[in-house]
Structure formats: structure tokens, C-alpha cells
Amino acid sequence: MESVTTSRNGAAGMFLGAQAIVVDCIASRNIAQGIVLSDDAIVYRCSAGMVRTARDWVRCRRFPVYEGVGIMVGDNGTVQGCSANFNSFNNIQVSSGSLVARCTANQSEGAGINLGEESVALENVCRQNSTGIRAVGNGSRIEGNSVVANTDGIRIHSPLVNNLVIKNSAMGNSTNYSIPAPTLLAGRATTV
Predict the structure, then answer these.
(1) What span, in angstroms and rounded, lies between the C-alpha atoms of 155 and 132?
(2) How far, in Å, CA of 82 to CA of 99, rounded?
(3) What pLDDT shows up at residue 31?
């Protein structure tokens, strides 16, 4: 799907299955979610914002679909060069084995970026969220991101998991890093 705009829908703005590719699309002011894709999907240069709804969830296929999410992708997905802002739950949410790279995810009541296990968050900007970047599970890499003015900058949300958090800039957050051992925290660019 390319160059499509959806707005003010009663459910998701875009809801596509496995191996979908969404490029240069806009989803705004939808009721449940902005852009939702199943496994092995790609979202590139898209914008999803102002999804406002309750934080209830429903089941959809193999991963939970939370209401109020801007961009959501299932297992082994890629979200790159996107902007997801002002959503009522998470701005960007990916399941296991996924990549979120060079995106902006600002002003969410949930996480700017929510990573499933064994996923990567690379060079993103997350501002004024409840949590800038949250990793749930084992084996994720969080590298080169800027997390500013969030309640929690970077949060590993599960005890006793192995994740790598490296070369991030975290400042002006209530808590810059909330990371349990044995996660490796290395090369913090800024911890003000």
C-alpha cells in the first residue's frame, strides 16, 4: 500500500495482513489504532497520530492489538523513518524479532516505542511519553536513541533478561534508565 491517507475511522485506519508493505501513508484521528500490520511486514516513511481511546485490548491474530496505538507490527516486522505522535497508548509497538529505526515517537500516554523480545530500536527520538523506549522480554538491542522528557527514559520491563542498551542519550526524564541486571548498559552518551 502506498501513499494512502486514512482519517476518522471507527476502528483502525489501516489493518493489513502478513508480509504487507506500507509506504508514505498517513493514519490520523482513527478510533482504535492508526496502522496495524501482521507478521513479516514493513512500515516505511509513514505517520500515525492522535489515536485517542481507552486502553482496552482485544485479540487479533497472534499478537495483542491495543487500542490507542499509532503503528503496530507483528513478529519480524520493520518500522523505519516513521512518525507516530500523540497516541493514547503506545506510539510504535512491535512484536518479537522486529526493528524500529530512525523514527520519532513523541507525546504518548504509554511508550514511545514498545519492543517485543529479540528486537532492535536504533537511532529513534522519543520525547514526552510515559516511557521513551520499553523492552519486554529477552535479547533486545536499544542503541543510539534520544529519549528526552519522558517519565521513564529507557525501561526494561522484565526482570532477569539479557538485553543490550548502548550509546543512547537520556536526559530530562524522571528516571533515565530503569534496567534490571543482567542487562548490559554501556556507552551512555548522556545521563543528566
Answers:
(1) 8
(2) 12
(3) 79
